[in-house]
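Weekly structure sync, notes
Attendees: PL (lead), two postdocs, one rotation student
Agenda item 3: pending single-chain targets
PL asked that the sequence for the first pending target be pasted directly into the notes so everyone works from the same version. It is reproduced below exactly as submitted, 195 residues in total.
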Amino acid sequence: MLKKDLSIIFYINKLFQSKVFINSIPEKFFDDIDGKIVKINLKNLSYNMMIKIHDNAFQLIDDEDKFDVELIASPITFAMFVLTKGSDQFSSKISINGDIDTANKFNQFISSSEKLRELANHILGENISNTLEEKLSNATSSFQTLFQETSSDIVDLLVDDINVIPTKNDINKFLDDVDDLKSRADKLYQEHKDV
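Predicted structure, written out during the meeting:
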């Protein structure tokens, strides 16, 4: 097993404690939720992220026993929530257990594109992060177009189906017409029966 100082958590915490990352968070932004622990539970993955908010900064921790709020979502839903800057379409699919104020403040931070842009610039470098942002922006607009077209197609389908389904008056008129036709057929039969 790796030593604690060589683990991935160690390197992520070094990133979270870097001046560039800390300066990307507005001053006193997290003061009202200082000391809170956010658990991000990504469905279908065996790893949960535990983030402690302390002194307006983040720290990844290993202890999974205590947390103030838990965000539960699939990795795709969580990523799309971040990419679409907190779109209601994806935020509604994230389950929240625990302190709602902590969840709202944390979500406000992760859905802010400026914070993520600065973080990506720091981790990946400006050229790569700009290319990545451009590709993600194209993907986001494609997803939004896809969802809009799909929802309008579903609405059109339902409206067309509703127009095809007969109303109560249509059914009653049909039954009356059938009765009328049957009466006329019986009458014709009686007239021509003797012939």
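Discussion points:
- The two ends are 104 Å apart (CA to CA).
- The first helix runs from residue 8 to 16.
Action: rotation student to compare against the earlier draft before next sync.
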